[in-house]
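Researcher: We're reviewing a set of sequences before deciding which ones to prioritize for further study. For each one, I'd like a predicted 3D structure that I can look through quickly. This is Carbohydrate esterase family 16 protein. If possible, include the structure in token form so it fits the rest of the review sheet.
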Amino acid sequence: MGVSFTSAINTSTSSDGTKYMVVFGDSYSSTGFWITSGYPSASVPMGNGGSTTSGGLNWAGMVTQELNTSLVLTYDFAVYGATVDTSLVRGSTPDVQDQVGYFNQYLASKPDYAPWDSDNLLVAVWIGINDIGNPFWDGVASPIEKVLDEYFDLLQNLTDSGVSNFALLTVPPFQNAPSFVDQGEASLSNLVSNITAWNTALSSRLDTFQSSNSGIMAKIVETEEAVTTALNNPTKYGATDATCTNSDGTTCLWYDGYHAGQAIHKLVAQAFMDGLTGSFF
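Model: Here's the predicted structure for Carbohydrate esterase family 16 protein, in token form for your review sheet.
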């Protein structure tokens, strides 16, 4: 449940048991981390930063600090407002293209502060909300296929650098976020169609990508169930209803009109761990 399996390998190991996770994405994953301001360590596994849009830990922080039994050092390059490529869809910088560039600059050489190998490093990507959402607000078509072309070019770049473990999170059903309550049915129908098109193409393209790169462990982590589970029973997760917002991240399911609170992030993190336990964690 929650994860599509593209390939499987044995649980990764390293000489000291340390694992590395590299995250690319947008505000649903960002923590304010900047690599030159301090590296992740055993005492601070997420490194510097600590600014999220969940009111506390987001899914990446929960995976790193709460839901696994190994030491995971996470390099979270995700940036609030990011898209895959700002030349295709407007968004904040650094976009994912730039984020991968930072990996190439600071981590690809397997430096002393992050001596990773192909078995103990996982790349997790959660992107697409702004690639679909920004065109929605702008009233233009989302160039989904062109964006995904670039997405998978970036994955190939990472593979060529020695990365062999990937987890790609699907675009969540963000049409249910409070910011969309007043949108018309026709507009929301188009938004939902684009989300579905993105996720369908993501899965099929990952199958092709895996077939073209032997030895890859690649998984799709489905996020829809995590979101709808909370929305269908908000009181179970401490909220009065499915649309209230509160920046404390716990009183409501939504941190603000666009961003999920901690309960939804916890469900996403658990789905992530359920899918990766035994193949990476």
